[in-house]
Design goal:
single chain; alpha+beta; seven-stranded antiparallel beta sheet; two-stranded antiparallel sheet; about 30% helix
């Protein structure tokens, strides 16, 4: 009769194969989650929020800052924020049209979590990043269906 015991090298090969097969879904899920992570969020603020929700949630870091509110001729409410001291967010503008946040423009220091994210678009949102004059990154999150921003969205989509 043959030896029914499995040799140690065969066991190691099987264990390595099983481990490799089990790690594939984890690696795939991680790559998927990074690629398809929502692009409509910035420091706890999401496109579609109201002006009061923006002010209640921003900044996520708790840094003190100054708010200034104004409006455009089209009726867009502009919420401008500047830090009172040192901050990875150098400035931020939140644009609210017809009661919903439709654009976020932020000047970020290189150490901010969103500073290195690439430009990309989904069916609903465009995220555009470009170098800022001060060495940081100028990032724009904008809804693609807002008529006030339609020309800007089309121009930026041409850059992707």
């Amino acid at each position: 009769m043959g030896n029914t015991a499995t040799k140690p090298s065969a066991l190691l090969r099987r264990a390595a194969t099983v481990a490799a097969l089990l790690s594939l879904p984890v690696a795939g899920a991680l790559a998927w989650s990074l690629q398809d992570a929502p692009i409509d969020r910035f420091d706890r603020v999401e496109l579609g929020m109201t002006a009061s929700e923006v002010r209640a949630r921003f900044p996520a870091s708790g840094v003190d800052g100054r708010w200034q509110t104004s409006a455009t001729e089209e009726g867009t409410v502009l919420l401008d924020w500047e830090p009172a001291g040192d901050s990875a967010v150098r400035s931020a503008r939140f644009e609210v049209h017809q009661g919903a946040l439709v654009a976020i423009r932020a000047n970020l220091a290189q150490n901010h979590a969103n500073a290195g994210d690439p430009s990309r678009a989904t069916a609903d949102v465009l995220r555009h990043a470009a170098p800022a004059d001060d060495g940081g990154t100028q990032v724009l999150w904008i809804t693609r269906n807002c008529p006030v921003h339609q020309d800007e969205v089309e121009a930026l989509l041409g850059d992707l």
